[in-house]
Amino acid sequence: MMKNKVGLVMGMANEYSIAYGISKSLINNGANILFTAQSDRFKQKITDMEEFKNNKVFICDVSDDNNIEQLFSSIKQEYGSIDFIVHSIAFSDRKELQGKYYNTSRSNFLNAMDISCYSLTKVCQYASSVMNNGGSIVTLTYYGSEKTVPNYNVMGVVKAALESSVRYLASDLGEFNIRVNAVSAGPIKTLASSGVGEFSKVLDYEKNRSPLQRNITKEEVGNVCTFLLSEFSSGITGEIIHVDCGCNTVGIKF
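Above: the chain's sequence. Below: its structure in token form.
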């Protein structure tokens, strides 16, 4: 499905990341992946993985505009062009992912919005200069953007902004025949989700009300993302695709 395609995966932290499942699916379908890491420490984690030890890893802190500009300048210089981008980047102070949303601090709100949402906009600003005709960009969101989820707090608000950004970016980049979509995955135990208070209860809640009686896996999310990054989804853009074993509710309460 992705034979001879070259693309960028941003935000893989470790083998428990959703981005790991996406990367494995892309490689299994023939893609050549470039990675970004926030720092040398995260870069080492990627290169320590046997399956990715030979993949190129760029250092890029998405809170720094110069870093993003340099990233795409280096990609253009070394590879000429790419076919896809996976944006799997989000951040919030763990202490604010518990309790009440109204206790969110101004500093964490702005920082979470900058890293988790605005970074996609900045990435897309440079995408048109390095992406081939028919290119595809996928970001990751979560159901907490639509309904209340205990302790998800500021991230729910940020993901709602991210989903709105996807629609506007899809409109902007459509003239370049570049598609932008988001995948809203059900709850998965990752390094990021472990910071959400009582997340194990969310996993149990979703599993028990799912028609499939289980939680979604990062591998299944990866396969859907691969489809959206491939030419098989050439008519899909500006969409929020749910991958959650059939879960749907008015909100989660414990």
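The first helix runs from residue 18 to 28.
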